[in-house]
Structures are given as C-alpha cells and as structure tokens.
Inverse folding.
C-alpha cells in the first residue's frame, strides 16, 4: 500500500465505482473542501483497486473507509497488513456487502468472534438528478444550520454517542455541517454530516415527532451539501424500516447494503 497525496485524482477514480464507493468518494471530497488538520491518510494498493482511508477521529475508536471492486476482494488480505491493528479497537464504515465475508475471515484469524461486530445497514443515496421536496414551514418553525451551542442536543439524541462524540459534533457544526428545525426557538429535530461524508444522527425530540420535522431537516441539509458539490448519503440499520420509508420521501434511494464492522468495540456511553 502506498500513501496518496493527489486527492483530486483519487476522487475522480473512486467516482467511477459508484454507488459502492460512495463513502470513499465523499470522504475524499470532505478532506478537499474542509481541509481537516491533521489530514486524513489515504492509501491505495499497487496490485488491486483497494483504497483505505484512515479517517479523522477524536474518538478512541479509529475509523477506516475501505473500498475495492468485487473482482479484487480476494487480494486484500496482504494489503491490509500494517493498516489494521488487531490489538486495538477499530471500525470500518459502509463496507460493500461483497467485502464482508473476506474481512470477517481475516478478522477471525486474529481473534475470537466475540471481538467482531457486524451491523447490517442499508445505504441510501440522493441521486443528483432528484429534486428535493419543497420545504413548508409553519410560522413558528425555522430550519437552519445548527450553531455549536446546540451540539449537545444532537449528541444526547444520538444512539451511538461516546465520551468524545460531543467534540466531534461540535467540530462539524463549526464547519456549518449540522442542521436543525426549530419550533418556537427550540431545536426540535437535527442531523449532522460527519467528516467521512455521512448525513446521519437524525433525531427528533419525542414531543415533536410525527410532524414531518425530520424530513424538513434532511431536505434542508441535503440541499446545503449539494450546494458544496457533495453527494448526500446515509445509512439506515436494517431493523429500522420506518426510517427507511421516511428518508425515501426526501428523495433518497436504497442503492445497496453496506454494513459497519467493529473490532473490539467499546460499549456505548451512558453519558
């Protein structure tokens, strides 16, 4: 594996492999646009189509984006040596489904099955040609970018929060990548774009649910991301079909399955 510094070329190469490369493409775009410092580290194989991106993380759980096309899956084991540590926890997001059996086999050769967690997800992408629904607001509603001062709401509502996730969400809202719908000045529904491209952590306060606020928030955030030249995408856990129905109403399409894989994953925080 060799480190890549020409991110424009990497972006263009990955864009030819959509939809399976969606997280890799958008991750590279985010680095180009927002210039994270320290920067993400991108590696490519010299023998296959494998791309590994070590994402920027404030957490103790290193996050990787890994992509290769289906014909090269059998070649990835040797390339991943020295990239993934088997002594420490890590996560791989949006793994194309055809890569999971091979990655699982590699992982289980380094430790017991109890170390490995695979969360099945549907990948949803907003096609650039799809027109977003018109946003209709009541007089006491407002949809806008979330200031860092409201990051605590997003973090508290997020199922996968950790001891350091609030810092991550604040950093993204500082970049204008948090979005929310307010009712009477109170943040009622929110979402945030993570630094690897995902528009996620969608949450609505319980007393404001079933009013269409999540759809408004997603539509607003998606439109903003499009204005930056980004291609909005997200995940929905396969047990959560109501959320899939909701996000489809905004215009997203379920393109493929893309599980998340965790090695020695820490338990979610109760904070």
């Amino acid at each position: 594996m060799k480190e890549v510094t020409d991110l424009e070329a990497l972006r263009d190469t990955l864009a030819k492999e959509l939809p399976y490369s969606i997280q890799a493409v958008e991750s590279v775009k985010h680095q180009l646009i927002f210039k994270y410092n320290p920067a993400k580290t991108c590696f490519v194989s010299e023998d296959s189509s494998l791309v590994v991106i070590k994402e920027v993380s404030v957490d103790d759980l290193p996050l990787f984006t890994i992509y290769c096309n289906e014909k090269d899956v059998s070649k990835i084991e040797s390339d991943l040596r020295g990239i993934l540590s088997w002594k420490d926890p890590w996560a791989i997001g949006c793994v194309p489904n055809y890569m999971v059996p091979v990655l699982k086999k590699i992982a289980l050769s380094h430790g017991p099955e109890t170390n490995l967690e695979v969360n099945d997800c549907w990948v949803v992408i907003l096609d650039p040609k799809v027109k977003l629904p018109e946003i209709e607001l009541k007089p006491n509603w407002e949809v806008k970018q979330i200031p860092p001062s409201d990051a605590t709401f997003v973090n508290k509502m997020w199922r996968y929060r950790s001891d350091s996730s609030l810092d991550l969400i604040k950093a993204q809202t500082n970049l204008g990548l948090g979005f929310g719908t307010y009712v009477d000045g109170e943040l009622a529904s929110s979402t945030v774009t993570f630094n690897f491209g995902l528009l996620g952590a969608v949450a609505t306060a319980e007393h404001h649910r079933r009013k269409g606020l999540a759809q408004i928030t997603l539509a607003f955030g998606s439109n903003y991301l499009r204005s930056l030249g980004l291609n909005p995408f997200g995940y929905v856990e396969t047990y959560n079909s109501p959320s899939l129905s909701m996000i489809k109403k905004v215009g997203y399409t379920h393109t493929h399955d893309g599980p998340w894989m965790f090695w020695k994953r820490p338990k979610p925080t109760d904070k």
